[in-house]
Amino acid sequence: MTRTEPPGHRPPWHGGAGFALPVDADDAVLVGRVWDPGVGGPSPVVVRDGHVYDVSDTFSTVRDICEAPDPADVRHVRGKPVAELDELLENTGRDDRDAARPHLLAPIDLQAIKAAGVTFVESMLERVIEERVRGNPEAAHDVRQPLTDEIGTDLRSLRPGSPEAMRLKQALVAEGMWSQYLEVGIGPDAEIFTKGQVLSAVGTAVPAGVLAESQWNNSEPEVVLLVASSGRVVGATLGNDVNLRDVEGRSALLLPMAKDNNASCAIGPFVRLFDHGFGMDVVRELSVRLEIDGDDGFTLAAVSDMARISRDPEQLVAQLIGAHHRYPDGAALMLGTMFAPTVDRGEPGAGFTHRTGDVVRIRTDRLGGLVNRVQRAEDCEPWTFGIRALLSNLAVRGLA
């Protein structure tokens, strides 16, 4: 679908369909979810030519689509018209949302929400810095350059768990330089953690939550893989792994507090299912762009290149799921990011942290764009629709 805006047109903050959709949307199999007030619950949808169609009569959940022999066959399901995508985005992104009209949700439902940490050298070094300064952003500037000089930035050439990586580990231990973050960055075992609970993710055009007490935090733009219960990767989307650097820096044991809060996991806007034109080889070459615009006039732009990831995505999936660990409803796996902002937003040496009202745009051409506005987690719309509510709703609709 090609969109042409009139001269002088200013798109809404969420960017509209032109931002949300991939550049080759006409060739993509795009699956999402909408909240349908008519049935009081969520429905899986597909996007075609800028229109959204409800396919719940055939697939009651996105999980069921992902478990199909060929998930991309959902492109052939006619479905019931819901609305134009622009209409859905506009209602989703409004502060005074019309509760009588549908709006978009995160495009996953029963999948476990998992994340891989420390998968890029740049972010790995920043995690080590957080640990060294105990979560104090004002001390990070004085530690960053000396630490980088000592460890080096050529770690991306190391294969985690390789003999070369293990020799470096032994050398760093001997010098008193070892860190738990270097362990999962270059050691044999990846960090795979639970980012959020099933059904807790928010989608595009809604607030993303940061704890009010956090004074050092950032968005983390990431590619998210959709993994079926068999371990087969069936699609991909985008994610914002909101991270509280001061909390995790105090202690890695506070990771749940740093990562899993109200509206702190944004995923979307749609899952692009793998087919003959889009698969893992494309994912490996994606460049994920991040833009942050603050009400104070602050702007930041960065790129996270998947080609620089230290572990292949399929290796991360193998550590997530297999004979050692099953996920009967599949999983959404966030692959990590190389983005760890160090630019000063306020006083010199204070680094970057979010402020309420920041608009965070994450986009890659083949997956589209995810956009959220930063808000205190305590003030975001509370998560109330859980697994029990979903099962009850599907039963009432005759879809369970």
Question: What report would you give on this structure?
Answer:
With 400 residues, this protein is an alpha+beta fold. The protein has helices at 16-20, 62-66, 85-92, 121-132, 137-151, 163-174, 180-186, 245-250, 255-259, 280-283, 313-320, 387-396; strands at residues 30-36, 41-48, 51-54, 80-84, 103-105, 112-117, 191-196, 206-210, 217-218, 221-227, 233-241, 243-244, 265-273, 287-293, 299-305, 331-334, 359-364, 368-376. It has 2 domains: 1-119 and 190-400, Fumarylacetoacetate hydrolase, domain 2 (Alpha-Beta Complex); 123-186, no CATH class. The strands form 3 sheets. Strands 1, 2, 3, 4, 5, 6, 7, 10, 11, 13 and 16 form an 11-stranded mixed sheet that branches. A 5-stranded mixed sheet has the order 8-18-17-14-15, with no helix packed on it. Residues 1-5 have low confidence and may be disordered.
List keywords for this structure.
400 residues; alpha+beta; Fumarylacetoacetate hydrolase, domain 2; 2 domains; eleven-stranded mixed sheet; five-stranded mixed sheet
What's the tally of helices?
A: 12
Oligomer type: single chain
Structural class: alpha+beta
Largest sheet: 11 strands, mixed
Pick out the low-confidence regions.
1-5
Secondary structure layout:
Layout: H1 16-20, E1 30-36, E2 41-48, E3 51-54, H2 62-66, E4 80-84, H3 85-92, E5 103-105, E6 112-117, H4 121-132, H5 137-151, H6 163-174, H7 180-186, E7 191-196, E8 206-210, E9 217-218, E10 221-227, E11 233-241, E12 243-244, H8 245-250, H9 255-259, E13 265-273, H10 280-283, E14 287-293, E15 299-305, H11 313-320, E16 331-334, E17 359-364, E18 368-376, H12 387-396
